[in-house]
């Protein structure tokens, strides 16, 4: 079997290339292979992608502000990665299922998670903010790369169910060193699972540069697992949309997994607890600022004759409204009742947890009404 | 009633589970074409197909992690870990994902995964093939841990584990796979004793002897030997290590006042330590002697020719019985 036999599109692993449809100046670059995947994306659709990116950038800034003001315990900023996240999530169908890390604010938001759900984890009121089945987005994953296996298992199930939906696994460049990610590649390849591995190579795993994870382009890893590896400009929302659509279609067709390496940059710290000035310099940041995903899309829209001043104004207002909603939802979250700490450890009644709960309830009762006010009924 | 080996009883139980619910899938290394290295899944792939009984790549993290994804999709995966000592590459997925997902999702995601683990020593095996890692999992909130000891229980408990909406670590005493017993294959699961309830396998009055897995038979043999010596042992097969059925243990200990706990796993931080502590808290006024543990040593599992010096056997259990009775024993005159 030759490589080209594997894929009816004729797409080979092309890690040496770099799919880009809109360059840093906002100029449309034509690509015979990927243009057809976004032939339907007109100026209005581009305007919606712009709007998405502006809103999630604004939500992200609000999250950082809420953390700085002491309202959130932690926040993992997505700034700089808007195109990678919006371009990929907007390629999904409603019945596709996303398995994310902790940084995919844009994915959860685009899948309809309410403002409250975006902050519960970081405010510490609950370990998750939404019902995964309702939004087709799994509980965000903090163990690096573990979700790649979950996406693969889900995709194996899709295949056994004869569904043409797909799964997508989001992870970063650091995760590509984890066993779980590589084992996910093996399982997905062997079982031809309809899963897209979407790696946001944002150049840094906290303080470790991507060069510590890999001595070659991450997309080239795909070749060892007999799947296409596609390297895309992760700050080009149109290109990300195109390659993700291609990979999803490949999955739906039964041709198995793909690896996308979206080359992007984490403009902010790893989390609000991080200090990137200890490991990277301003010149690097400035160079990436020139490749900003939102600015280049706005330039493209301007070139297409769109009233960008009007678009900017309307979008900024929408973004401010979304940020205000996020803030209000955050401040409105109430601490859960004390005894709810025992809820959902098990799905079925469990004598051990029931006994500990009962004992703790008795202990709290020693403190009288003040404590019992906080107890609530729990589940 | 049918006479089956413990291994065959598991096979028939798995077959029933596959037939009863088409969301049940079996996954593991060598479980399909070969039928498993212990043949526990023999014939099941031929009957149910390659998408219900799945030969997987050699990756325990992969097996457990994809099972989590399948649970998201509404499947009921049953994963075979080939040998006890091979489970550790999957440890993170078990402890950080399987155990916690129901809690983290506030009950939105059920994780009805069964992880089958042939465990324990006594078969003269190579390294990493004779371990007893159950305490790691009993320590982990969100997991249930059960152990079968005989064909009838194996047949029922494997079906109960698979039907449970909670993740279950299902330990199988591999040196008893070939032991035969009567199994009522037609019995209804609904009427069966829940897997969380312990069984008094030999009634007695003087000492409560608690164990599980392969040592249940050893403990029963010890009870026969003790009886010849005028000592009446009540042998309890724990069956469930998490949660522990304390009411059954307490009822026995309040009568006997003396407790011996035996397991193959090492002593430090083991299941016996937890049970000794909990029963001391609950039954202190009834105790005639401090609880005694008879366990494997706190050493890496030794080479095959030394394993008889590691595994508790009938005589070591009886030595522990002598200790709780205040009779002459190996530690007489020594501060234990």
Given helix and strand content, the structural type of chain A is alpha/beta
Q: What is the average of the pLDDT values of chain A?
A: 93
- Chain pair with largest interface: A-B, 43 and 49 residues
Distance between the termini of chain A: 57 Å
Question: Spans of chain B with pLDDT under 50 lasting ≥5 residues?
Answer: none
Count of helical regions of chain B: 11
Strand content of chain B: 15-25%
CATH architecture of the largest domain in chain A: 3-Layer(aba) Sandwich
Radius of gyration of chain A: 22 Å
What is the H-and-E element order of chain B?
Answer: EHEHEHEHHEHEHEEEEHEEHEHEH
Average pLDDT over all residues of chain B = 97
According to CATH, the homologous superfamily of the largest domain in chain B is Thiamin diphosphate (ThDP)-binding fold, Pyr/PP domains
CATH topology of the largest domain in chain B: Rossmann fold
- State the secondary-structure class of chain B: alpha/beta
How would a textbook summarize the main sheet of chain A? 5 strands, parallel
How many strand elements of chain A? 7
What is the quaternary state of this protein?
heterodimer
Intertermini distance of chain B: 47 Å
Keywords (chain A): Oxidoreductase, Pyruvate, Thiamine pyrophosphate
Cofactor (chain A): thiamine diphosphate
Protein name (chain A): Pyruvate dehydrogenase (Acetyl-transferring) E1 component subunit alpha
InterPro entries (chain A): Alpha-ketoacid_DH_E1_comp (IPR050771), DH_E1 (IPR001017), PdhA/BkdA (IPR017596), THDP-binding (IPR029061)
Q: Which labels suit this protein?
A:
heterodimer; A: 379 residues; alpha/beta; Rossmann fold; 2 domains; two-stranded antiparallel ribbon; 7 strands; 8% strand; globular; disordered N terminus; B: 336 residues; 5-stranded mixed β-sheet; 14 strands
